[in-house]
Amino acid sequence: MNPHYDIVIVGAGISGSVIAERYASLGKKILIIEKRDHIGGNCYDYKDENDIMVSKYGAHLFHTKHPEVWEYVNRFAEWYPWEHKVLAKVDDKLVPIPVNINTVNILMGTNIKTEQEMEEWLQEIRVKIDEPKNGEETVINKIGTYLYEKLFKHYTFKQWKKYPIELDRSVLDRIPVRTNFEDRYFTDTYQALPKRGYTKMFENMLNNPNIHILLNTDYFEVKDMYTDYEKLFFTGPIDNFFENSDGIGEKLEYRSIHFEWESIDQEYFQENSVINYPGSDVDFTRIIEYKHFGNQKSKNTTIVREYSVDTGDPYYPVPNQRNRDLYEKYKIEADKLKDIYFVGRLANYKYFNMDEAFKNALDLFEKIEQENGKLI
Ligand code: UDP
What is the pLDDT of residues 158-209, one digit of tens each? Predict the structure, then answer.
């Protein structure tokens, strides 16, 4: 006989862990089925051989403007303030990203000093487009073609295997243009990193006798064993869920990342945690040096070069019209299913930031439970 769980969750990343934690707080019996050998999804971090806390699947910078999300994550971890900054290496010059006054002065040889001067300069240089329709138009409308080519065109191609013109403007609109000297990557009210790492935070979220976790287990291989549930939450790629059912057939596109790790026998490799390489002269998109996060001390250093690739674990949905239309078809199928919910970046095919993933899962939980009349 199949074991009964009130809630079955596929995936132990942000979305799966929030749903598990919330239902456990109601006393529900929960099973999480996770393909990998660890919890935490792509936020998973650990101390490496240099005693540096590194993130196996790329740097995760938490930032949010939502007080309720900030309050929620503080229940499970202590956080220290961390305002992320990014530099880009352009023709051997290091410039701040997003574009600010210093970026322009360094790359263009200008001597802009005030916000007004920057606004005037941008007015002259920009290619005016009333309603930008894609990633290229939205960038050149703000900063003109020269900076677009230097900072965005090739980086985007390396990242997405598509030029900005082939992508929704929303992808490129993630990066603002600043008319002042602001050099933080994000401007949200709350910006922080967990003192003991993300993995520890997930352990705290899931540390409940009512939550049972099956690691190293592919849901699709065991699903016939776990059919006795009230609700199923699926956090994997939505098209995988429908892979073997009749109907749509076409696959959604995802980008994956290949990480080239290197331990280097010197104290530091670069002057910032993240340096982007927006040129077509190298294949990687950026180099991360983890010890900068939280100013970690160690004799040696660990760096990782990120290469964006087609195959491998899905990291990024690819926002364009074709994929959006296809996702809508999957969503129609998903909405027909009773007691099965699709939650998170991969299941909703949305380019969520971490805080949006928390919020999306918390909102879904509240919505379902309100409809059940259990919460007022
Ligand atoms: N981008 C770019 N050059 C940069 C940084 C970003 O062209 O130096 C573009 C690129 O298309 C990227 C998008 O802006 O995918 C969003 O950047 P973000 O830093 O938000 O990407 P993530 O950190 O999620 O990989």
Answer: 999 999 999 999 999 999 999 999 999 999 999 999 999 999 999 999 999 9
pLDDT at 27 over 70: yes
Between CA 249 and CA 291 the distance in angstroms is 44
97 alpha carbon to ligand 1 midpoint, in Å? 10
Name the pLDDT band for 4 (thresholds 50, 70, 90): very high
Spatial contact of 283 and 161, defined as CB atoms under 8 Å apart: no
How far apart are the CA of 160 and the centre of ligand 1, in A?
Answer: 10
Place of tokens 């290197």: 262
> Which atom of ligand 1 is the closest one to the Cα of 276?
8
171 Cα to the center of ligand 1, angstroms? 7
Q: Read off the pLDDT of residues 198-208 as tens digits, 9 standing for 90 and up.
A: 999 999 999 99
Task: Please report the pLDDT score of residue 372 as a whole number.
Answer: 84
Residues lining ligand 1, judged by CB closer than 6 Å? 88, 97, 151-152, 155-156, 159, 171-172, 174-175, 276, 278
Question: Which residue from 94, 155, 351 has its CB within 8 A of the most atoms of ligand 1, so it is best to mutate?
Answer: 155
Number of other CB atoms surrounding residue 303 within 10 Å: 19
Choose the CATH number for 7-82+190-253+317-371 among 3.40.30.10, 3.40.50.720, 3.30.2130.30, 3.40.50.150. Answer: 3.40.50.720
Which sequence spans correspond to the domains of the chain?
7-82+190-253+317-371, 86-173
Cβ atoms < 10 Å from Cβ of 195: 13
pTM exceeding 0.90? yes
Structure-block tokens of residue 232: 């199923």
